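Pasting as-is:
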Amino acid sequence: MMNTESAKRGWVVGITGASGSIYGVRLIEVLLQQGYPVHVVVSNAGWRVLGEELGWSAGKREQVLQEKFGEHPGQLHYHPFADIGATIASGSYQVEGMVIAPCSMGTLSAVASGASDNLMTRAADVMLKEGRTLVLVPRETPLHAIHLENMLKLARLGVKMIPAMPAFYFQPQTIADLVDFQVGKILDSLRIEHRLFTRWNGGQSATKNSE
């Protein structure tokens, strides 16, 4: 069940230029459906990938987001990528935490090094300094040593690493099933209840959303 205080504070969702923009889109949708305020930041490369993978237009960005998510009960707040003076750039502004999904290796590297020259990395830095929840969803393969070292560095600081690695034990039938599994794992890390996938029950047959 949704916590009232968490709902008031809301969540920050960042979408970078890594492939897999559908993960961030679906996460925003589910959070809004549950009534959470959601602060959205999309990098310039992220808008390009949204266009290439989902056919979104980057022309009127805030308008596009309202068209995609406006019907849901939660309140959507869009922040331009370069707006370093946005509310979420300050630790004094209360949010519950932040998820970057998908997270490019460039953004992950910037967060690991403490760089904060855009709103995405600044908001992530705020989560670290304030001790709030920060979840990164890396989407890259193969991974080289620098990628792994940056992930280890952040994991040691308490950042949750949830790579885009959907499971298959629940016999997914569609791409949407795989996306929902990934988003469900993110929601688990945020301690938000959901029914997006069937949980492992010891190998017995189960039906999706049967919990």
